[in-house]
Amino acid sequence: MPEGDIALLRRVRRRLYWLLAVMMLQLSDRIPVTVGRRLCAGLARLAVRMRPTDRQVAEANLARAFPELDVEGRRSLLMESAEALGLNLFDTLAAGRLLDKGDTVVEESGPVAGRSQVLDVLADLAAAGRGVFILTGHLGCWELLGGWLARELAARGLNGLGVVTGTIRNPPVDKLLQGRRRGLGMTVLPREAGAGPLIRYLRSGGIVAVLQDQNTRVQNLEVPFFGEPAPTPAGLARLVMRYGIPVLPVVIARDRRTNRHLVLHRPPLEFKGTGNIDDDVEDFLTLCNAQLEYFIRRNPAEWVWFHRRWKS
């Protein structure tokens, strides 16, 4: 096929994906929430059955993470994960609408240095003036978490929420998605722009969420994750080592009884380096992976098992 025809097909395909995304967003603003969730959950379960390659990736990942489960146990967890992914997809599409309700997202209480709420902890950490990293992952409805944090931080007079994002190869869809994040109050910090915008945002007192649980096309180190080496982005650790930026692990999880989303956090990470930057970066990334693994083990059905987290 001539290159001109191939380029045309790519443009048409990208446009169709954009139109589909626009239609889904518009639909999510109009249909009842319970109907939308049920529809997306059903589509996700169907997609798992129709995409054998993705299903095999997820089954292999589950076998690595939970070798104690038998085949049927892993398949059951896989279908739970697909359903949760569908539910969270709809809540992502309807994030603005759900956040306007005011009771969709709630905090889990827990003792952290005498302060029980994640927003209190973030305010304390931000007071040092070095900025704050939120360590999080593709667990639960992470886009809803970003929107909620952005609104709540702004309401407290803090510097909002920055999010480190990759760029989708489909420019119209990328523009739509990033515009939606900005509409929810997030400051988008594209990974491709380098460290400069991120560092400036942190120096202004900003709080930045970093999704640290996937194998992406950045500088990685292989450190343990569920007991096996996994490529893990090293940029976060290098910035923490260099600038002394505090890190707070935070995720979100659905309460299946109420369909509310619960914000969970652990204490700020404490790390004493050796002075050897390479060893310290590797050790800190291992600590980060341990935090994320803790959250995933607590709520395995809501992690994205379909991603190729390990190299093989």
Could you walk me through the main structural features you see in this protein, from its secondary elements to its overall organization?
With 312 residues, the protein is of the alpha/beta class. It has eleven helices and nine strands. It is globular and about 50 Å long.
Strand content: 15-25%
Number of helices: 11
Instruction: Give a quick account of the main beta sheet: strands, pairing sense, barrel closure.
Output: 7 strands, mixed
Range of helix content: 40-55%
Rg, please?
20 Å
Mean pLDDT: 90
- Supply the helix-strand structural class: alpha/beta
- The helix/strand order is HHHHHEHEHEHEHEEEHEEH
Distance between the termini: 34 Å
Spans with pLDDT under 50 lasting ≥5 residues? 110-115
Shape: globular
Q: How many domain modules?
A: 1
Main-sheet strand order equals 1-9-8-2-5-3-4
The counted number of beta strands is: 9
What's the helix and strand layout?
Blueprint: H1 3-28, H2 33-50, H3 52-65, H4 71-93, H5 95-101, E1 105-107, H6 118-126, E2 132-136, H7 142-155, E3 161-165, H8 171-183, E4 186-190, H9 195-203, E5 207-211, E6 220-225, E7 228-233, H10 235-243, E8 247-255, E9 260-265, H11 277-298
Parallel strand pairs: 1-9, 2-5, 2-8, 3-4, 3-5
Antiparallel strand pairs: 6-7, 8-9
Brief write-up:
This protein has 312 residues and is of the alpha/beta class. The chain has one domain (3-302).
